[in-house]
Amino acid sequence: MNDPDGALAALMEELRSREDPAARAGMARYGIGTGTALGGTSIPVLRAMAKRAGKDHALAGALWATGVHEARLLATMVDDPKQVTEAQMEAWAGDFHSWDICDQCCSNLFAATPFAWPKAEEWACREEEFVKRAGFALMAVLAVHDKKAGNERFIALLPLIEEASDDDRNFVRKAVNWALRQIGKRNLELNRAAIERGESIGGRGGRAAKWIAADALRELRSEAVQARLRSKQGKTKAGLPH
After folding, report:
1. Tell me, what's the pLDDT at 1?
2. CA dist 115 to 83, 153, 209, Å?
3. Cα 123 to the center of its chain, rounded Å
4. Rounded percentage of the chain residues whose pLDDT exceeds 90
5. Structural domains in the chain?
6. CB atoms within 10 A of CB 200
């Protein structure tokens, strides 16, 4: 942007023009933190705004600095992952106060940085609820989008998943479950490893662990997932696109 201040003002004006208390109340029903939310601007609309704005690291920082919920979501979409530093990731993760900002930031931005893998492992061991969630959200996103990573990298994450399976906090246990399921849906070898780990988690006895295991194993053992993974393996062996 040639005029980052002007771009910020225009985007904030657009967000505020859509402010909707009823939509904000709806967000709260989904467990979204609404303390700084305006409401009224959906994720698809934010993506359209980000496309118009283009990639702009300085603008992303300015949007994040407003503290406004929707502006921070937009910041994760306009920032350039090539310019994101480890210090920025730590600062933004420390600001996470809602699962949607955490997940959108990990998916839209952090997973594309060179720090994604080490942060996934580091944050998975942190105590702060949304920082810890971010560690497992990164694992889930990497399992889907990092096509070059070998199975061994994901297998190395499974002990971290099991270790966190005793955390009863809702936003943590759901992310732990998400990471286990996504790793187990990557290919047949990882499916077997995730199922084995899920069985181990289920035997831990805690309420969170039992829920994580039961929910993940139900999907990972399902015929739909098994059929898709068998088909994917067959295409890989045949050298076909998948």
Report:
1. 47
2. 12, 14, 28
3. 13
4. 93
5. 1-79 (no CATH), 98-242 (1.25.40)
6. 15
